[in-house]
Amino acid sequence: MKKFRKLTIALLAICVFAISVTACGPQKTATQVEAEAVAAIREQNIASIQDYTEREFAAILTQVSYENYAAYKDQGQVLISRTFDNDFGARWKAFVDAHGQCTQAVVDLTMRHHDEYTSRIIMTGEDGAQMALTITYDETSTPVKTTIADYSDDTNQTLGQKFASAGANTIIGIATVFAVLILLSLIIYCFKFVNIAAAPPARKEGAPAAPEAQVPAKAPAAKAAPVNAPAQDPMSDPALIAVIAAAIAAAEDKPVEGFVVRSIKRIKTNKWR
Question: For residue 157, what is the DSSP state?
Fold first, then answer.
């Protein structure tokens, strides 16, 4: 009994702790709650619009011929509004004229963009070609206009068709690159003519030539010394006399004071005497 009472108290403590942790958790603001509510409403609108497009428009495209629909309009019957009915009928007629009666209509995409909803129907004609019919709804989920365009589904193409499409795209890309390169080459080539046009005009034959700028005359060069000018007298160089006297004294092993240099003459043997 005591064990049961302890277990009950422990469970109550755990429950109280869990409730307190939950209560202390982050609370959503009013803006966040409103944003989540708006997002939920829009998701619900998208689902309802897609269902409405499948039931009302995709079904009528395959279950009723365009001629019957045109007769229905001529009787004054209105599906949504006269403006919308005329727009929807014009798109339907364009498809029938190009590909025959619609044999299949499938809603493949419904989305919201700004303040509008769009739902796209893929229509398949008697010749197997496909077109995309897009129906636009306003904020109140009322259809207001339609558009139609060619549609290509790669999943239905064979491997050969995919290779052919890829090859065509490759050729177009390479051709574009070469066209741009050729254009750049032509632009660079034209620069030569721009330089010619910017050059000064050539002098016509017989026209007086423009006066040439006078070149200043060079200063006369200094006269060179005559080749056979007399050499300087060695006796006039005291340093040379002192060197020769010292050399003689060293050769004779006598003091320099015992010699007197009276003359210096050069002989052909390149020796001094």
Answer: S
Q: What is the mean pLDDT of residues 4-24?
A: 56
pLDDT exceeds 80 at position 28:
no
Sign of CA dihedral 85, 86, 92, 93: positive
pLDDT of residue 4: 42
Please name the residues in contact with 6: beta carbons below 8 A apart, sequence gap of 6 or more.
Answer: none
Q: Does domain 34-156 have CATH number 3.10.450?
A: yes
Closest CA relative to residue 150, chosen from 83, 110, 91, 109: 91
Q: Return the ∠ at Cα 84 (arms to 121 and 70), rounded to 5°.
A: 85
Cα 18 to Cα 21: distance, rounded to the nearest angstrom: 5
3-state SS assignment for residue 243: helix
For the full predicted model, state whether its pTM sits above 0.85.
no
Residue with tokens 């302890």: 6
Write the CB contacts of 93 (distance below 8 Å, at least 6 apart in sequence). Answer: 66, 70
* Highest-scoring range by mean pLDDT, 112-121, 191-200, 227-236, 247-256: 112-121
Higher pLDDT residue, 156 or 44? 44
Task: Give 61-129 as a DSSP string.
Answer: HHHS-HHHHHHHHHTT--SS-HHHHHHHHHHHHHHHHHH-S--EEEEEEEEEETTEEEEEEEEE-TTS-
